[in-house]
Task: structure prediction
Amino acid sequence: MKLGAHISISAPFSDAISRASDSGSECMQIFVNAPQRWAPQTIPEKEIAKFVALNKKADINPIIIHSIYLINLASDNPFFYQASIKSLIDDMEKAEKIGALGVNFHLGSTKGKKFSEVLDKIVVAIKMILAATEKSFLILENSAGAGDIIGDKFEELSEIINAVKSDRLKVTLDTAHAFASGYNLATDDGLEKTLAEFDKFIGLEKLVCLHLNDSAVELGSNRDRHAEIGDGKIGLEAFRRIVNHSKLCDLPGIIETPGIKDRTGIDSLTILKSLRK
Ligand SMILES: [Zn+2]
Ligand SMILES: [Zn+2]
Result:
């Protein structure tokens, strides 16, 4: 498994490549827009060209773009709904420019409605985004299922995927979110069952990225609390099985925690790398 971190893109944008190299990342995730703002951010063309040129040498691949946090493709509010679509299209266009694999995003919240009531809305938005762009993947991330947040169960993601019917719609599996949603990745048996269920409902061929976060909260607690690798309820041995699993080892694995271990001074990325056979 190629392993990497979520890397900051504080200006200048092209510095992300040296930051990724310095962190020991072999693949990486970045924002290309300010995560708490609707307005798309302009990245100077010069910086994009420099980023691409620097990465020819550094070869950090794949690059995954993480969307802004405000996205809600189920929103009743026309402004938020349209702004979500616009922001994802902007991310997708930037992905194509920088040679990223695609754009990972959180679907949003039903805000008290049933999933079946918002499904059409989500499907229409995803189709619009894919129609407006050419190459990059649009990547649904499974959620921890807090409150009305969409996408904690594979069944829900599969309903969206089956309705959109596009080869460019893919999935990221976040280990902390899956665990919080009741998928017991901590045990050997639980990992096998989770992958079998993923394959049954979604299809493992749709899985293009892993977010490797340990969970600070218990199995099935439906809360989104990441922990450093080995410091949470999933545990080191479970991550050893995950990074070496024959069905997962060709995927990029991204850590989203700050990466600093208080106890040992060793960061999560180094720990994960040491678990690879
Ligand atoms: Zn994640
Ligand atoms: Zn999370």
In short: The two ends are 10 Å apart (CA to CA). DSSP finds nine helices and ten strands in the chain. The CA atoms of residues 158 and 202 lie 5 Å apart.
